[in-house]
Structures are given as structure tokens and as C-alpha cells.
Specification:
The chain has about 140 residues and is mostly beta strands. The protein is built from 3 helices and 7 strands; from the N terminus they run βββαβββαβα.
């Protein structure tokens, strides 16, 4: 899998990062989630995990030709907004050694793969949906 760095919101480097792949997907590197109240609200299929990232990380989608202005809707199970103002992003856990070798991932972070189509759908104006949709209260 080939990666193209889109951006990070960190000055340090080993922090939440967004990549585009050659498979019409995005890799979202973010903080591992250890809070049981968050994990119990997610329906994770085998091979899936979730990471937490700052909302500003998705501003870098513009570098991949997607519209600027941020996400216009959130959809479980792909992405939820926490009361703390971060996103929990769910996707396939990245196990591709070639891809992982291209990243610097500290022990407290993990990487999920999300389809470009799914992310693009979150950028579109919702029809009949609440654009201010929030995560479950326990998040």
C-alpha cells in the first residue's frame, strides 16, 4: 500500500496524522481508546478498531481535493463527536507491514483505514439529518 501524507496538527510529529492511500482509502492515525464507556458504545467487527483524533485533522482532506469547510455530518459507526471536541473514528485496523513501516506510530496510537467514499459522504450536506448530531452521552 502506498501512502501520501496529508497532514498532522502536531508540532512534534508522532501524533494524529492523516494519509491518503492508493486504494481509495484514508489512514487515520490517532490515540488508542482505553475508556470502557466509549468502547462499549461501539460495534466493532472483527479486524476493526477505533482511534480518537482532533477535529482539525480532517481539514487536511483539502490536500486530497475534497471540499474545505469540515465535516457536515457524523455517522455511527464511522465517526462520532465527543463532548471533549474530538472525533472517534472507526475502521479496519491497519496491519499492512509496508504501510506501517512508512509511519512513526508511538505505543499510545493506532491506525484505522476508512474508505474515501465514506469520508466524502460526511462532507456532503445531509438531507433530513441533524448536522449537529452528537455522540452518545457517555462518550
Amino acid at each position: 500500500m502506498k501512502l501520501r501524507f496529508l497532514g498532522t496538527n502536531s508540532q512534534v510529529g508522532d501524533c494524529p496524522t492523516l494519509y491518503a492511500t492508493d486504494r481509495d482509502t484514508y489512514l487515520v492515525q490517532g490515540w488508542k481508546i482505553f475508556a470502557n464507556d466509549v468502547l462499549t458504545q461501539l460495534t466493532l467487527s472483527e479486524g476493526e478498531t477505533a482511534v480518537e483524533v482532533p477535529t482539525e485533522l480532517f481539514e487536511h482532506l483539502e490536500k486530497d481535493g475534497l471540499p474545505s469547510g469540515g465535516l457536515k455530518r457524523l455517522e455511527d459507526p464511522l465517526m462520532v463527536l465527543t463532548p471533549g471536541g474530538t472525533y472517534v473514528v472507526q475502521g479496519r485496523a491497519v496491519t499492512d507491514h509496508e504501510a506501517l513501516a512508512q509511519m512513526s506510530i508511538p505505543d499510545y496510537e493506532s491506525v484505522v483505514e476508512v474508505s474515501k467514499a465514506a469520508i466524502t459522504a460526511l462532507l456532503e450536506d445531509p438531507r433530513g439529518a441533524d448536522p449537529q448530531r452528537r455522540a452518545q452521552p457517555a462518550l
